[in-house]
Amino acid sequence: MKRLSILFLIDGLGGGGAEKVVLTLADAMSVQGHEVAIISLRGERVYPVPDGVDLMLVEDRYRGPFHRQTDVWRRARHLDRLLGPYFSRRSVDLIVSNLPKTDRVVAASEYLQNAWMCLHGAVASVELQRKRGIVRWFKRKQLQRTYDGRRLITVSDGLQQDLTEHGGVRPARMVTIPNPFDLDLIRRISYGGCPLQGERFLIHVGRFRREKRHDRLLEAFCLSGYPGNLVLLGVGPQEKNSELYRLCRRFGIEKRVFFHEFTVNPYPYLRAAEALVVSSDYEGFGNVLVEALACGTPVVSTDCPYGPRDILTGDLARGLCGLSSESLAACLNDVLAKPPIVVSGQLDRFSLKNVVERYLDLADSE
Question: Structure pTM?
Answer without folding.
Answer: 0.86
